């Protein structure tokens, strides 16, 4: 039932999102956090070995559409942080069994991160590659 509700809300966007829409999105995001819903799943029948779940992509995009820009800064004077209210930074505790290394790692609520995962910031070399690719894309 959730897939059809998400697709309907995405395809037939109301002028204003009601409380029932907010609850639907919260349920969707909670299932994403638990890993019950995934944006892509292994599929041996495809060339890449993966299959995208279009309805989940719609649900993720729906969250951006429904959210308002909110101040999520921990210390706005040192590092201001503004993003959509529907995707705050996900809260973790030691009991989650996830290691988050300082220096640029940020995980949005709605992301499934399994026990034993180590979230590392990108290396300087990877950053240079991304910056080069971004610059190349803008120059075209």
Topology:
Layout: H1 2-11, H2 19-34, E1 40-42, E2 50-52, H3 54-66, E3 69-71, E4 82-84, E5 99-100, E6 118-119, H4 124-139
Parallel strand pairs: 5-6
Antiparallel strand pairs: 1-2, 3-4
Helix pairs in contact: 1-2, 1-3, 2-3
Structure description:
By secondary structure, the protein is α+β, with helices and mostly antiparallel strands. It has 2 domains: 1-87, Tetrahydrodipicolinate-N-succinyltransferase, N-terminal domain (Tetrahydrodipicolinate-N-succinyltransferase, Chain A, domain 1); 89-140, no CATH class. The protein contains 4 helices and 6 strands, in the order ααββαββββα. It has helices at residues 2-11, 19-34, 54-66, 124-139, and strands at 40-42, 50-52, 69-71, 82-84, 99-100, 118-119. The strands form 3 sheets. It has a two-stranded antiparallel ribbon. Strand 1 and strand 2 (50-52) form a beta hairpin. The termini are far apart. Mean pLDDT is 86; it is low at 132-140.
Features:
39% helix, two-stranded antiparallel sheet, 4 helices, disordered C terminus, Tetrahydrodipicolinate-N-succinyltransferase, Chain A, domain 1, 140 residues, alpha+beta
């Amino acid at each position: 039932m959730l897939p059809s509700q998400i697709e309907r809300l995405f395809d037939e966007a109301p002028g204003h999102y009601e409380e029932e829409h907010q609850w639907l999105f919260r349920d969707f995001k909670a299932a994403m956090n638990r890993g019950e819903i995934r944006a892509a799943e292994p599929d041996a029948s495809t060339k890449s070995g993966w299959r995208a779940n279009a309805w989940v992509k719609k649900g993720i995009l729906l969250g951006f559409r429904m959210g308002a820009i909110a101040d999520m800064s921990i210390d706005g004077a040192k590092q201001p942080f503004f993003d959509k209210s529907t995707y705050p930074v996900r809260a973790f505790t030691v009991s989650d069994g996830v290691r988050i290394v300082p220096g640029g790692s940020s995980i949005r609520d709605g992301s499934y991160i399994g026990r034993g995962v180590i979230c590392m910031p990108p290396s300087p070399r990877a950053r240079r590659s991304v910056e080069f690719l971004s610059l190349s894309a803008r120059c075209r």
